[in-house]
Amino acid sequence: PTPDPDPEPTPTPDPGTIEDITDPSENTASTDISDTPEELAATMLTDEEREQLAEGANISVWGESSDKDSTVSVKDQYLTEALLSEGTSVGKYLDINLYKKINDGNAQKVTEVPGGKVTITLKVPDELIKEGRIFGVIRVHGNTATLLDSTYNATDHTLTFESDEFSTYAITYKDTASDDSSDGTTPSGSD
Helix H segments across the chain? Predict the structure, then answer.
């Protein structure tokens, strides 16, 4: 008897794609995700979702931000203000959220990322820009406010920071002391 021929090997599915579809022009402060698709797959997806991606699922991720100055809760204001150092003020409150969608499924809001941190870049609003001003970011998530490490780029007026929780954010600023106050005004936040 001749042995049965080896069965056809099961084809390996082509991997799917993960795409960042954030549109900064639609977001308050032109908020954008700065990570690569590979970094987003590692940070934003669960093990099951990464498996779906490997098996051919197409995944879209995006960030959205909106002005929260008029809707920020008293609790979030209190938690934020408790972290402000002397002379530091809140310039703007934002609601920053992440979303993901697998194939044609429903969009899922991501309030916490399971695999690390996502890099966010936002443009400091023009009305806050002033020579010598130092900017920062405070995140309020649940009942906890956290001062995040951030980097301000004075050339394009952007703040870049990493976060693993998404909800209320505050852009903070502090004016540095100036020996030459030629216009006679005092910096914001000074009495």
Answer: 37-44, 47-54, 74-83
